[in-house]
Amino acid sequence: MKTTPDNSGDVRLSGISKTYGSFTAVHPLDLTVPEGSFFALLGASGCGKTTTLRMIAGLEEPTTGTVRLGDQDVTHLPPYKRPVNTVFQSYALFPHLDIFENVAFGLRRRGIKSVKKQVEEMLELVQLGEQARKKPHQLSGGQQQRVAVARALINHPRVLLLDEPLGALDLKLRRQMQLELKRIQTEVGITFVHVTHDQEEAMTMADTVAVMNGGRVEQLGAPADLYENPRTTFVANFLGTSNLIEAEVGTRSGDDIVLKAGDGKLVLPGARCTAPTTAGGKVLVGIRPEKISLTHADDAGEIPAGRNRLTGKIADASFIGVSTQYVIDSPVCAGLSVYVQNVERDGRLVPGADVVLHWSPAHTFALDAAQAIDAGTEEEVAA
Ligand SMILES: Nc1ncnc2c1ncn2[C@@H]1O[C@H](COP(=O)(O)OP(=O)(O)OP(=O)(O)O)[C@@H](O)[C@H]1O
Ligand SMILES: [Mg+2]
Q1: Angular region, 48: left φ>0, alpha ψ -120 to 50, beta rest
Q2: Is residue 266 part of a domain?
Q3: Number of structural domains in the chain
Q4: Final residue in a domain of this structure, among 206, 231, 256
Q5: What is the number of the ligand 1 atom nearest to the C-alpha of 23?
Q6: Distance between CA atoms of 41 and 49, rounded to whole angstroms?
Q7: How far is the CA of 46 from the centre of ligand 2 (A)?
Q8: Which of 182, 183, 190, 178 is closest to 152 using CA atoms?
Q9: Tens digit of each residue's pLDDT (9 = 90 or more) over 360-369
Q10: Using CA positions, which residue lies closest to atom 29 of ligand 1?
Q11: What is the residue range of 276's domain?
């Protein structure tokens, strides 16, 4: 039974907020999740992800604003009247029922008698056809999680909400389940809204990621776009690692901006600067660790002209298989990260070596220096 004539699974949040007493967990938020997309809400603990999800599900009443699903305003509907299902981290299967009956539960509750075909299809979808007669405790964590997804999907929700559904799994199983959930979403084609604090998980799975910080969405976009063009220090540091270097705005040269960092200069495409660029003003120059090449100081003459460069000394080197991760102290900035693919390793690049860091100006971005330089770093988030 459809509650509305349209099938749209768009989720539209307009000005929704949530306050508890004098504390604002979610500031007024406008967000549209297009039908059929895989959308991730990403952010550190306490930033308001679960609260936002619970307002979509109807488990939490918004302090202000509206929730629409397609053309239907569901703001004042109770959870069970919304075409939405939620999968939680604690998937809470019924321990005394077998897998088949766990998945059949939603259908039986609605008084549907012939459940066999639908349940079998669902078990097939999550690749648990063989396990139908087992009890939950006889399955692995990943298998139990897939039962929870099947149990939600059998109700044909227009939107599936997932709150850290992989949080209880170990890393390897998490990676498998990320691909598995992505496959299921592509196959059923309904809107998934997935909450996680794991940036790799969000980037692996989602078409669109909304990065939340302190009850606000700081930036929203496709994973690659967020990664390459962060607009705030929080996004630059929380999504992967960024080197952020204080610099002073110098002259313009065509479409480029020339910046002064210590004694040297760095060139930045004007279009990649989100900070005010009055000459003499401060900006934070950003460069991702894998975009930087390392050359031993003795070979500095071989570096092609036109590259941004900084001198430094290797403070630490960690070999991690596919790459070596260096920490480099430069006169303009201590603790720069550089990741070098292990193709041809230069045996001279060991702690204590003098090096030149260099990269293409095109890979340089710049952010407003008025923000905290360490926002979103592991140290800052843990504090
Ligand atoms: N019922 C409540 N009463 C008071 N404060 C609450 C309540 N529920 C949540 N909060 C607060 O609102 C903020 C956001 O909580 P929320 O559960 O949405 O965070 P989260 O992003 O899901 O975090 P996590 O990653 O740890 O699950 C937190 O600071 C939390 O303490
Ligand atoms: Mg949460």
Answers
A1: left
A2: yes
A3: 2
A4: 231
A5: 5
A6: 6
A7: 7
A8: 190
A9: 999 999 999 9
A10: 46
A11: 234-382
